[in-house]
Please model this.
Amino acid sequence: MKIALIGYGKMGKTIEKIALGRGHEIVSIIDIDNHDDIKGEAFASADVAIEFTAPHVAYDNCIQAMEAGVKVVSGSTGWYHQHEAEMREKCEKEGKTLFWSSNFSLGVAIFSAVNKYLARIMSRFDNYSVKLEETHHIHKLDAPSGTAITLAEGILENIVHKSSWVMGDLTNPDGTVTKGTVPGPTEIKIDAIRRDEVPGIHTITYGSDEDTITITHDAHNRNGFALGAVIAAEYTAGHSGLLGMKDLLDF
Model:
């Protein structure tokens, strides 16, 4: 399979290594210093483009890749929910293909399934409060993380007495805390921490006066995210439309 990379930071380089190890060819690498190459023949020859950049440029990157006739796998967060309706229309009415996920880790996909299952159980026990906390490296620009939002949405789908999530406290890289919204009775709070080079930790806690139930996913490095992105690209090469982890993993 021919792959184009959009974004060549730590994640892009890890994806490149894994893709080459699985027998794929990297035909184009788009980064800040050569962004116009996204309009070139090498990029257009790709079967799939894997996009990991920043929230403020991800949307344009996806649009330009689609215009070049290349299917896109995007793991950039902080932009998708704002443009989801437009992306769905492009895929359904214009024949474009986008595989988007807030997190490509197979472990996180399993964790997400456990989260939803636990939420269905906890929906019967309104004496438990629920909250989320996510920790990421100091370079991450969006808060809360896309994964935390996805996990919160999974809870909201399954707990009848909760209706929305709110941004809680943000612990900044220097240790200062930016106070967030105090959640109401039907809201779920997501706290965020920016610390060191943490790849990603997500914790969901149910608490009552009697006890606490906690589940956590702790990523040790970027390899799991990169492998999942390459597997998603392999899937996307043979499929069309607006795709996600639910299409790739049936559980």
Summary: The first strand starts at residue 2 and ends at 6.
